[in-house]
Specification:
membrane, 2 strands, T_SNARE_dom, 8% strand, mainly alpha, disordered N terminus, protein transport, 2 helices, 118 residues, 73% helix
Length: 118
């Protein structure tokens, strides 16, 4: 090898898909330059393949997550429907039970406070 590559690459401003190459014509070793460019292209191709496989994996994962979410929403909807039917069938006695329980608790606290003052 005759040292570092003598080409310089820079992206043209505004257009990221164009690359400008400047090669020093006095010290040209085209085989070495082509080999270096092929190596860079191979590395870029490997990176893009990795990105593609990762994107496919993430897309499959998101699809599975979406299906799980749809199933969970359907289950919640069915359970809410059953609960509403049960409340209608059984009546609204549960509200009365809660109110009576609250009154009983307040009465117990009231009696306890009266007894503890003595």
């Amino acid at each position: 090898m005759a040292g570092p590559y003598r080409s310089r690459s820079a992206a043209v401003s505004g257009k990221s898909d164009e690359i400008q190459l400047r090669i020093d014509p006095m010290h040209v070793d085209f085989d070495e330059e082509v080999f270096g460019l092929r190596k860079q292209v191979r590395q870029l191709r490997n990176v893009t393949q990795e990105i593609e496989s990762e994107a496919k994996y993430k897309n499959d994962f998101l699809n599975q997550l979406q299906m799980t979410l749809i199933d969970a929403q359907a289950g919640v909807k069915n359970n809410m429907r059953r609960l509403n039917k049960s409340i209608i069938r059984e009546g609204s006695n549960h509200v009365m039970h809660v109110v009576l329980f609250a009154l009983l608790c307040f009465f117990v606290v009231y009696l306890w406070s009266k007894i503890s003052r003595r």
